[in-house]
Amino acid sequence: MKTLIYSYTGRRRSKKKKGKAGLYGLGLIFLMSVAAGLLYVLYMLFPVAENSREKQTVVIEQGTSTEAAAEQLKNQQLIRHAGVFQYYSYLRPDSLKAGTYRLSASMSAGEIAGALEAGEQAQEPVVSITVLEGRSLEQIARISAKNADFSEEKFMETATDDSFIRSLSESYSFIQQPNNQNEIRYALEGYLSPQTYEYYGESPEAEVIIKDMIERTNKTMVEFSNQIADSSWTVREIWTIASIVEREAMQAEDRAPIAGVIENRLGKNMRLEMDPTVAYALGEHRLRTSFKDLQVSSPYNTYRNRGLPPGPIASPGTQSIQAALSPERTKALYFYARPNGDVIYNETYEQHTRTQNKYESEWENQ
């Protein structure tokens, strides 16, 4: 009997131990889940892009709910999670105020909420530089100097400085080292992205502006990364083709067909014979080129040299980059642009000559 009693009570004690161990385990899982949840919420309050230098305009209309404001901020990629931001805002003592704000993805959710609660209205930029598609480095230098507190010469001096280019090439693989530029006129040509750049507080130095333009181009390359990886062209070749398309196409619908002509001529080892490359070789912006112009000795002159120029001749926009990556598949080897913007495509030289003879007089009054 004693043995039986001992055995029985031992089994009951074992169940109690197992029950306690189970409770401890559940408690530990619960605490770990709470900790993980808190870490997730904290992470959602971190900046989206801590190193971003860009600022976006955010307009919060009168009567906008916190939920709608949070969704707007998420859509503009200024916060990580709309729901977390919404509840975080509820926990703060002040409410969001309507107004126009300048916010950056480098700001934390707390900083953004603080700005919206304080009603810190957006200020006018001290410097605003708009770079249009198809502008060359020298043209961008002129535009930047006109709007900032430095000279055109200072911009060009910075943009061509070997040590500066070397430092950029270490961060951006598409920029060639000074000793690897070969026949390239400017290492940064084509890579100062068309966009509007705004600066607040103090007027920036040329180096800051150039870096921002290069970073914008880098982001564009990331956006096209899958297509670039699938292309048979290098990044430099893609940007070179895109820059020629940008300078040749007067209408958006002609970008892909012109890119197709370029690809077709390269495939047949024909000279491209693109007038914008001659204008770049001459260092001038021209609508038309003369027979004498076509004789200029330059690696950029595609009337004298086969293949692509050494590098881009201007900064292309995203539509021209897309065209270079996805040219229209036709048999056209020639195109003729009329002053009214119409472009006529031909497959043979004889057809092209007839087109040229028919419409050439239109350019005489231009």
UniProtKB/TrEMBL annotation:
Chief location category: membrane
For this protein, the record's InterPro entries field holds:
MLTG-like
Q: Which reaction does it catalyse?
A: a peptidoglycan chain = a peptidoglycan chain with N-acetyl-1,6-anhydromuramyl-[peptide] at the reducing end + a peptidoglycan chain with N-acetylglucosamine at the non-reducing end
- Name a GO CC annotation attached to this entry: plasma membrane
**Lyase found in the keyword field:** yes
The entry's localization annotation reads: Cell membrane
Q: Which residues cross the membrane?
A: 21-46
Identify which top EC class this enzyme belongs to: lyase
Q: Does the keyword section mention Nucleus?
A: no
Q: Quote the function comment for this protein.
A: Functions as a peptidoglycan terminase that cleaves nascent peptidoglycan strands endolytically to terminate their elongation.
The protein in question is named Endolytic murein transglycosylase
Q: Which gene encodes it?
A: mltG
